[in-house]
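Two quick folds needed for the group meeting slides. Do the first one here.
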Amino acid sequence: MLYTKDGFPEVNEIVLCEVTKIYGNSTFVQLLEYEKEGVLTISEIAPGRIRNLRDHVVENKVIVCKVLRVDPKLNRIDVSLRRVPIQVMKDKQESIKKEEYSERIYMDVAKEVGSDKDTLFENTYEPIFEEYETVYDALYDIMIDNKKLDMFTEIDQKTKDAFLKIINERIKPEEVVFKENFSLKSTAGNGSILIKDAISESLKPLNYDKVSIIYTAAGEFAVTITHDDLKSAQKLFDKFRDSLVKIAKEQKMILKITE
């Protein structure tokens, strides 16, 4: 769902652009999320010498760029293609795919209740962008906690029911990896055994199998928790930490957790 943003983009913002015109050594692009024109000079297209500009950009091609300069008075926006890291480009493209998926969800909800997508969006966009960066982020959060749908106060119960049904059918939890480092040391003769037992005992209250403890150096460890919800992963870690703090104090061990 490529909604239009007001104003100008921020410097260093990653934006989706469509090549509209190539003139000399300059490429003109349309910033799709702002409906504004940007300029991509030949030096910002790719590293090294460019022999043929059209080997890199052609009219109507959609590219991911980084905003270099913004001058609202001159209505000029300079962008760069070469300064966008591959992973950042992939993340932006994935974000766009998710927004397009969100648009299909809106279309199906509107069809089910006899409305239209644009009206449905107008009745829900304000609470979404008060708290979320994208529409998909909001829909995903609703899937995790259906009560979050209550933020849509401008739609009736029939529409809410249709939203819940389609969101729960179409959006599946994505696994995230929560990671935290800690050190646990003991001066006792059997310190290594005490440390091993302390970690093992602290894992038991979690009753969760997607937890890994990695030994990184002498007395240094990393705990990783794979979960479909970051907040839930944080709660599991908090439970692990609280137990480890208690055991370390009882056994006179030195515990440090990297926040």
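Then this one, please, same format:
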Amino acid sequence: MSETLKQLWENPANPELDVAIQAAEAANVCTAGTRELTPEELECHLGRVEEFKAILKKQVEPRRYQHSLNVGDAARELAELNGVDPGKAYLCGLLHDIEKNRPLDEQERYMRQLGDLIPDHVIANPKLWHAPAGAAFIRDELGILDADMIRAIKYHTTGRPHMSPLEKVLYVADYVSVERDYPGVETVREAAYRNLDEAILIGGRFTLISLLERYRKVNYDTFAMYNEVAELMGARFEEAAAKAEEEARAKVAKVENPER
């Protein structure tokens, strides 16, 4: 314990004590042991796929299990198209929802065990708990210590600004897995295999509209992610829309005034 924390500890009346200790513990838990896997370590984890599937099957409902298999396959395909390690992507897809159907008290325990300071708007929405809980589960129960994989699972539901390529792959794979049938999924799916940012922009738009139409809260990370990608891709979309409109007008004009 640092000298500052020691002084705070010896003076429990100090109101900064809890905040200081929590921050120190969070920093330690978040960084301890997380790093990029070596090729040998990744190969070892990939050799445990059947073991992971057996654990997953016990943890989630049958529909969720099939979804997890599908997201694993989609993540591997998207990874291969985008220069991301397909093994890491597959494992993230397979395991991303491992806490989805678990009791809320277990999800909350793992979420807090992850070590990050959890924003109030996440704590207030139990539907978001399974993602950070799953990140803690793969780290602490399965021994997968790769920081990028842990973050990918943590943010697979909400997204976040400045996502790594692996995070983007998992976020989009979850949107477009083969069993998904929401309105507009084909549009997102076509974009996914063309450009991940385009898929994030289109899929994020669907999510935001759905939440706003139901007067539901929108996660701050989702807003920030959308704004970041919109700034990158929005101008291209505007140019494409203007070009399409111009071509449509030209076709109408040609029909109304055919050349003789």
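Slide caption for protein two: The chain has a mean pLDDT of 85.
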